[in-house]
Design brief:
Domain Flavin reductase like: 10-150
Largest sheet: 7 strands, antiparallel
Protein name: Flavin reductase family protein
Helix content: 10-25%
Strand content: over 45%
CATH class: Mainly Beta
Order of helices and strands: HEEEEEHEHEEEEEE
GO biological process, one term: pyrimidine nucleobase catabolic process
CATH topology: Pnp Oxidase, Chain A
CATH superfamily: Electron Transport, Fmn-binding Protein, Chain A
Number of domains: 1
GO molecular function: FMN binding; riboflavin reductase (NADPH) activity
Pfam families: Flavin_Reduct (PF01613)
Length: 156
């Protein structure tokens, strides 16, 4: 099977966009990711998948905690900044929630302590036990077929 065909097929699945954040030795680290999902309600668990070449992999292993910032439709620049597509002139200011750096004005923030990790192919799946949740009322930022997208109401 062709790698490009597989990537294009997986990229056709519309997802939300998140920035995973953590702090190690007083330094904040962040990475854009769309490989995020809810795992369990009791106990409350989520999962993020991080590539083996990503610097964030080691940061999460070391910090043993992380936050998932679910982005709004107004946070395209934040997504691009943490995916390396953009180098903003102004420094991003973080808030703190449950002892972790988080992006202000996110649609939702989920803080976690590291529950477990599993190597799967060229990624590590981190399972996080949820320690806190913040929720705002905004429209989500979506990503599909290599482009940022927004929700549109369907006519019934």
């Amino acid at each position: 099977m062709d790698d490009r065909l597989f990537r294009n097929a997986m990229g056709s699945f519309a997802t939300g966009v998140t920035v995973i954040t953590t702090e190690v030795s007083g330094e904040v680290h962040g990475m854009t990711a769309n490989a995020f999902m809810s795992i369990s309600l009791n106990p409350k668990l989520i999962a993020v998948s991080i590539g083996e070449r990503a610097r964030m992999l080691q940061h999460i292993k070391e910090a043993k905690q992380f936050a998932v910032n679910i982005l709004t439709s107004n946070q395209v620049n934040e997504s691009k900044q943490f995916s390396g597509q953009l180098n903003l002139e102004e420094e991003i200011t973080f808030s703190t929630f449950k002892g972790l750096p988080v992006l202000p004005n996110s649609l939702a923030v989920v803080t976690c302590k590291l529950h477990s990790e599993y190597v799967a192919g060229d990624h590590t799946i981190f399972i996080g036990q949820v320690t806190g949740v913040q929720l705002e009322q905004h429209d989500p930022l979506l990503y599909s077929q290599g482009k940022y997208r927004e929700l549109k109401e369907l006519q019934e």
